[in-house]
Structure formats: C-alpha cells, structure tokens
Specification:
- With 477 residues, the chain is of the alpha+beta class.
- The chain has 3 domains: 176 residues, PAS domain (Beta-Lactamase, 2-Layer Sandwich), CATH 3.30.450; 98 residues, Helix Hairpins; 145 residues, Heat Shock Protein 90 (2-Layer Sandwich), CATH 3.30.565.
- Helices cover 52% and strands 19% of the residues.
- The protein has a 5-stranded antiparallel beta sheet with strand order 4-3-7-6-5.
- β6 and β7 form a beta hairpin.
- The protein is rod-shaped and about 160 Å long.
Length: 477
C-alpha cells in the first residue's frame, strides 16, 4: 500500500474515532444540559410565586384573590415568540399551591384542587424545608411524557405554611433539544469532512514531495540530469540536502576513479612519443632530423594539453545538474563569434560559409557553455570538410522547440561509427592527417545540449553530414 494512502487512512481513522467520541459525548450532554437550565428557571419562578402568594395563603383568602384569574389568563396567553428560530405560541408551565398539609388549594390546570399531594417529592421535601423537585410521567407508558416539578416553600415568620410548585413538561423542550442535536450532527459531520479533506491534502502533499525525491534519485541512478527538489525548510529540506550530498559524495568517488583511469590510458601514447623523441635527441643527428623530433615533441605536448583541457571542461559539465544562469542569447551573434574564431582555418581551406539564422531568434541558456559547444562542433566539422567545401548554419522553430543545424560537405560517416560519435574518446581518423582527435569534442557538445534540455544527433545527408541540436525552446527579441 502506498505511503500516501497509509497516512490518509491513519489520519481518517483518528478523525473518525475522535469525531465519534466527541459527538457522542456532547450529544449525551445536550438533553441533561437543557433540562438543568430549565430547572434553574423553574426554581426562580417558584420562589418568586412563593413570595407573591404568602399573604393570601396565610390569610386563607387564596381562592377569593385575583390570583386564580391571573393563572387562568396566563394559561390562555399566546406569546407569539421566536426562540432561536423556533416558534412559541402557548405557555406550558403549570402552577399549583398546597397548604401545610399538602392539600392542593389552587391549580392552574383545575385538575387537582382538593387532592392530597403531600406524598409527592416537590411538596413533601419543600414542607420539610428541603429542596423539593421531581420528574413524573403523565403517561407511565410514554418516556417522553415526563414533567419536571419544582416546589418552593411559602414561609410566614419562618414557619412553612404551604408550597407552590411550578411544573413544565419536557416535551415542550424537545424541539430545542432536537434542533441542537441536528446542528451538532451537521457541524460534527462538517468538521469530520474538513478533517478528511485536510488528511487527503496532507497525504497528497507528502506523497508528492517524496515522489519528487524518488524521481530525482532514480534519474541520478540512470545518469540523467534532473534538478534537485527544493523544499521550504523542515525534515523534507534536510532529506533533500542529504540525498544531494550523498549523490555528490558517491558520484565524486566513482568519477575521479574513472577519469584518472581514462587520463592515464590516454596519456600513455603521447608521453611515450615525447619520451622516445627526447631520448633520440640526446644522440648526434642531422639538423633536419633533430627539427622533426622537436616538432613531434611540440605536437604531442599540444595534444596532451588539449586532452587535459577538454577532459577538465567535460568533467565540469558532466558534474552539473542544472544551469547556473539562463539568459536570452542572440543565436546569430553567437554563431558569428564562433565562425570568427576559426576564420584562419576557414580561409585556408577556402570554404563557403552560409548562415541562415533570423536576427530575432534567441537561445536560452549559459553563454559560455553554448559558445564552447558550438566551437567544438565547428572544430570537428572543419576537420572533415575538404578544401572548397561548404559549411551551413541554419535555425528554425519546430513547435515550441528551436532546432539548430550545421551542415558540412564531407564523406559519409560509416554506419558502424554513427551511433558512437558522441561517445567519450571515440574518434575517426582525420582525412588530412590520418590521426584521431581526443574524442571529447562531440561528447562535450552532447553534454551541453542535454544540460540545456535539448537533444543532439548526427546523420548522413546528400552531399555531406548534418548535425542537429534541438533545444527545448527559444525566446524572440
């Protein structure tokens, strides 16, 4: 199972269990909380009525007072109130008053007048000076028919002369309980969904970040160039830096070993020639022969120097993963500079040079590297172009890419050599001298083109050889 899915599932399980326990706990507290709040209001109301009715109960004039009419009018009231979006069109409180023996003197419902309520907790406890309250079902078979009763003692000079009870059916509170529970469920479900979305985004981000590192590691292991993923601090940034450091250390060791071996191998031949010529120069010989050996030493030394310089340039470019700068470089100007540097050789061979590159075309990249690449490319073409031959630079846009080509009139390249021309140290004999080059020029060109996100290819065409450099894009002036 993928890491991102594992992270999501763990997070989703945590969110689900947390949401379930929190919601279930809160839901269980909604009903008791509403009833506790209502009971507190009933206590205040009962104690207020106890003071209002104290004189009438003491004087025995409760039935002749205006209070029965007040309770009757109270029962007929229609508040027309809207409480938290819930309409309230009738009053629900029941009020009854008992004497010191628990017999009902007054009942707002008119049902219990004269009945003995002395055994009900609201009356029984209140008559003894304690807090009297009870919850009783009006229908024993219906759990939703319970009614809360809160009693308050009526006192006269410290003596309890009666009890007033205020009752409220729990069914009148149920709409508010249901509404609160529904809201909690919606809010809880919304939070769970948001939590899952966050978990999905988190797992996607972590997976994407790790995939970028994985892709980078795979590309490096395959020898491809790829930019190191960048992260804004944290463990991922540290991991990225550690992977890059490991790549640098491992590649550096293998790279040095490979290049030392290659350089040693390639230097054997010119050094042997120099040593042999130096030994022969210690003997007496004609001046003309001495000059020939001195010339050999000079040419072999130049070959060694060229080999070292090109190896250093190639080592530098092969260790690069990304461009250090990206500037818009006029391509025509760059080609003109390259041709100007080889003017002497071009003139000596009486070559015809053609350049078909629009002035507004730019190539994006590092000027130094591109200049070196075109110089190596032209140098290689000059080695194989015969006297009175042709050199032609062209550039055209192919979709979003820029294609630069160099044609030189020359003998066709053998089929066996075509796929190997950009290999390191592979070279064909030059027509003029019969000697091979370092075999690093075209390899350098290919490395530079790939570093710029392009492709390099060589093909035989009618009348000569065509080298194609395809860059990822170009910028018009």
């Amino acid at each position: 199972m993928r890491l991102g899915i594992r992270i999501f599932l763990v997070y989703a399980l945590f969110i689900g269990l947390t949401g379930y326990f929190v919601l279930s706990t809160v839901m269980k507290e909604v009903r008791p909380g509403v009833r506790q709040s209502t009971e507190e209001t009933l206590v205040d109301t009962a104690n207020l009525l106890a003071e209002v009715l104290r004189q009438d109960v003491r004087d025995g004039t409760l039935s002749q007072s205006h209070f029965p009419d007040v309770l009757k009018a109270y029962g007929l009231r229609q508040p027309g109130a809207t409480i938290w979006g819930m309409p309230k069109n009738q009053v629900n409180n029941r009020v009854y008053v008992t004497d010191a023996k628990g017999r009902v003197l007054l009942d707002s419902s008119g049902e219990a007048v004269g009945q003995d309520y002395s055994r009900w907790n609201d009356v029984y406890l209140s008559l003894r000076g304690e807090y009297g309250a009870r919850s009783t079902r009006s229908d024993p078979q219906d759990p939703n028919s319970s009614v809360m009763h809160v009693g308050a003692p009526i006192r006269d000079d410290g003596r309890i002369i009666g009890v007033v009870t205020v009752a409220k059916p729990n069914s009148s509170l149920q709409p508010y309980v249901d509404r609160t529970e529904r809201r909690l469920l919606w809010y809880g479900a919304g939070l769970v969904v948001l939590g899952l979305l966050f978990a999905a985004l988190l797992s996607w981000w972590l997976s994407k970040s790790l995939r970028r590192l994985t892709t980078y590691a795979q590309a490096v292991s395959e020898g491809r160039r790829v930019e190191l993923p960048h992260y804004r601090g944290g463990e991922l940034a540290q991991l990225s830096a550690a992977v890059e450091h490991m790549r640098t250390q491992l590649e550096g060791k293998a790279y040095v070993e490979r290049y030392v071996h290659t350089l040693t191998h390639e230097l054997k031949s010119p050094l042997a020639a120099i040593r042999g010529a130096a030994e022969l120069l210690q003997e007496d010989m004609p001046i003309e022969q001495r000059r020939r050996f001195v010339s050999n030493i000079e040419s072999e030394s130049a070959r060694v120097q060229q080999l070292i310089e090109r190896l250093l340039n190639l080592a530098m470019i092969e260790q690069r993963q990304v461009l250090e700068e990206q500037a818009a470089i006029p391509l025509a100007e760059l080609i003109d500079e390259t041709l100007a540097a080889q003017h002497a050789r071009i003139t000596a061979k009486r070559l015809r040079v053609e350049r078909s590159i629009a002035a507004e075309i730019n190539v994006t990249g590092e000027r130094f590297l591109l200049r070196q690449a075109f110089a190596n490319l032209l140098d290689n073409a000059l080695d194989f172009t015969p006297v009175n031959g042709t050199l032609r630079f062209d550039a055209e846009q192919v979709g979003e890419a820029l294609k630069v080509t160099l044609f030189n009139s020359a003998e066709p390249i053998p089929d066996y050599a075509l796929p190997r021309l950009s290999e390191r140290f592979y070279s064909l004999p030059r027509p003029d001298s019969g000697r091979k080059s370092t075999g690093l020029g075209l390899n350098f060109v290919e490395e530079v083109v790939q570093l710029h996100g392009g492709k390099f290819s060589i093909a035989n065409v009618e009348g000569g050889v065509l080298v194609s450099l395809r860059f990822a894009g170009h910028t018009p002036l």
